[in-house]
Amino acid sequence: MDYVPTCSLIVKTWQLRSAGIRMWEELFVYYDDTVFCHELRQAGFRMYFTPTIYLRHKISSSTGGVKSDFSRYFMTRNWLYWGLKRRNYAVLTFALALTSFHFVARNKVEIRGMRDALHMTCALPATVVE
Questions:
Q1: Residue 100, in any domain of the structure
Q2: Is residue 129 assigned to a domain?
Q3: Please, are residues 85 and 121 in contact by the beta-carbon 8 Å criterion?
Q4: How far apart (Å, rounded) are the C-alpha atoms in residues 10 and 57?
């Protein structure tokens, strides 16, 4: 597997500590598991699907759903923040187009999320996750 939602991921903490892998607290919610799985793959960890385990998870139940201001803000902010940290030019190009769209559509939540992602990137030391 390339991606596992962290709500269903089982991993031993000593292995994470020895590899220097951590959850990005600054992401808080949304994209935190994407970044985490990316770092696991980069460190050589393998993730497996176990079909005999059954897990129930109410997606977005504590955040008000995918259309809530909370979810829209953090999805926008964290997507752009991770793209900027990785120097992903496709994300940067798409972000410019999205900024124009959100400005015209008056989507203040997304504009605020994009602005905050830029502020976060400038405020923290520049590290590239590869």
A1: yes
A2: no
A3: yes
A4: 15
Structure tokens at 8: 């269903």
Residues in the chain: 130
Residue at 1 is within a domain: no
What is the domain count for the chain? 1
The amino acid sitting at 6 is T
Establish if 130 belongs to a structural domain. Answer: no
Binning pLDDT at 50, 70 and 90, where does residue 44 land?
very high
pLDDT tens profile 77-109: 998 898 888 888 888 888 888 888 887 788 888
- Considering only residues 74 and 65, tell me which one the structure prediction assigns the higher pLDDT: 74
Q: Which domain holds residue 100?
A: 6-123
Q: Which residues make Cβ contacts (< 8 Å) with residue 81, sequence separation at least 6?
A: 26, 27, 31, 117, 120, 121
Write down the number of H helices and E strands in the chain. Answer: 5, 0
Q: Which residues contact 57 (CB under 8 A, 6 or more apart)?
A: 5, 7, 8
Largest CA-CA distance found in the chain, in angstroms, rounded: 49
Answer whether 0.70 is exceeded by the pTM.
Answer: yes
Q: Which two tokens stand for residue 83?
A: 């793209």
